[in-house]
Amino acid sequence: MSAAAEVKIDPMHQFQIESLGGSVLDGTPFHFTNSALWMLIVLGSILFFMWGGMKRDLVPGRWQAAVESVTGFISGMALTNIGPEGRKYTPWIFTVFIFILFSNLMGMMPFGIVDAAHPFTVTSQFTVTAVLAVISFSIVLIVGFWKHGFHFFSLFVPHGTPGPLLPLIVPIELISFMVRPFSLALRLFVAMIAGHILVDVFGYFIVNGINSGTAMGYGISLISFIFIAGVNALELLVCAIQAYVFALLTSLYINDAVHLH
Amino acid sequence: MPQINQLLLVYQSQWFWLFLVLAVIYVGIGKGMLPKIEKTVDDRDAKIAGDLAAAEKARAAALEIEERAKAAQIEARTAAQAVAAEAKAKAAKDAENRLAKADAEIAAKVGEAEVSLAKARAKALDGLEAVAVDAAQDIVAKVSGAKVTPAQAAKAVKAVLGNA
């Protein structure tokens, strides 16, 4: 095979935000990009999914049962982690969970077979995950100061800490508290970007192995293919786990603000 | 990494569209659809709990009725047993009375018969004595030719009969 058929590996290209509609990116707020398009696709699929759960039958059908199991999962999470007050925070926890879950899964869809329809993983952008994390963290701060005033700072003084240790413990608690939005945003962002790079790189291995036309190339392609099938299954699991972790940590942090340990 | 290279170019549009999408999800789904779906689930759970409670109540009522029926059955059986025992006792007493009466009658008859038997026997014995006296007179007269008075014969007969 000639060098012209060789595929250049650029696993970061899939995270590139491109302008849709001809114009170049100019940093204005209303610019419609592929990222915005996929956010709207995610929104549309969430609305479509939830619409199927609005039949409100006494005996639920499959679709309604699926929707109810998702909503029941999140309301149960809010109830067990926060208590009866948790109902107030269910809408936000559910928003976070369903948006992350659908964004992650939509990014794994094999629409890339058609070149123009290559899916864009919204949650692989830290501009997006940071907003989600900052909103969750803001809710914690607002609820905490609203309910407890300056008593909220007792969050940094664990019960039963001996007096001499306080100068050491309080800064540690404060730092671990302030790090929360960063860990929330980075965990999701890194999990998504790492998985997609891995899938992408091994995808190129398959193509380049076949293009090389040698026995070793075919062998590498086959091994890569088997490997990538497993990684894809794992990635689908990670999609759900990351959405779950984000929602769970959000509910735990809100619980801290509501109950102060 | 495009996320960093493009940051200044895209962050405004990213945030605009993200806020738009999140607002629609939060208001439309989180505040709009979610409570309705939760209410459907809660209503169903309440209905199931209510139905179960009603079924439990019905079961308890059925158990109570069964209990009552059993008690009534036991009562009826006890009453029937009492009646049967009474009837049995009465019948036994009746039979005893009749038996006693019949015994008495039979005893009276037996007594009567014995009396008449004794009378007849005595009468027969008397007859026998008289015949024996006559026979003794005749035998003595025929054998020895001696005349024996009835008094003598009677005495001898009595002596023999007394020995016999």
Summarize the model shown.
The complex is a heterodimer of chains A (261) and B (164). Chain A is mainly alpha-helical and 261 residues long. Chain A has helices at 34-51, 62-82, 90-107, 126-148, 166-178, 180-212, 215-259.
Number of domains of chain A: 1
Q: Helix amount of chain B, in percent?
A: over 70%
Average of the residue pLDDT scores of chain B: 90
Residue stretches of chain B low in confidence (pLDDT < 50, at least 5 long) are none
**Biggest interface: chains and residue counts?**
A-B, 51 and 36 residues
Give the overall pLDDT of chain A as a whole number: 88
Largest sheet of chain A, in brief, is: none
How much helix is in the residues of chain A? Answer: 55-70%
Explain this structure:
- The complex is a heterodimer of chains A (261) and B (164).
- Chain A is an all-alpha fold and 261 residues long.
- Chain A has one domain (32-259).
- Chain A contains 7 helices and no strands.
- Chain A has helices at 34-51, 62-82, 90-107, 126-148, 166-178, 180-212, 215-259.
- Chain A is globular.
- The model of chain A is unreliable at 1-5 (pLDDT under 50).
- Chain B is an all-alpha fold and 164 residues long.
- In chain B, helix 2 (7-144) runs antiparallel to helix 3.
Task: Write a concise keyword list for the protein shown above.
heterodimer; A: 261 residues; globular; disordered N terminus; B: 164 residues; mainly alpha; 0% strand; rod-shaped
Secondary-structure topology with pairs:
The complex is a heterodimer of chains A (261) and B (164).
Chain A (H helix, E strand, L loop, with lengths): L33 H18 L10 H21 L7 H18 L18 H23 L17 H13 L1 H33 L2 H45 L2
Helix pairs in contact in A: 1-3, 2-3, 2-7, 3-7, 4-6, 4-7, 6-7
Chain B lengths: L1 H4 L1 H138 L5 H14 L1
Helix pairs in contact in B: 2-3
